[in-house]
Amino acid sequence: NTATARWAAEYDPNDALSFGSVSARHGDEVVIGTIDGGVELLQVDALRDMTRWCDGAPEREWWIGK
Length: 66
Known about the structure:
Largest sheet: 2 strands, antiparallel
Strand order of the largest sheet: 1-2
Radius of gyration: 13 Å
Strand content: 15-25%
Order of helices and strands: EEH
Number of domains: 1
Distance between the termini: 9 Å
Number of helices: 1
């Protein structure tokens, strides 16, 4: 639980492991699937928005313990 990102600051399409094994195979968008069966395309940078992934996140740049 740190403020240090675990992936690269910039997305590199040739190194998916550097960005959490994300691969933007549809232009510069990533296909995501959610537990409720929803599927959508997102820009790679939109994946960093923590308000999308955590109901308790009050801001985009948030982490547990902030």
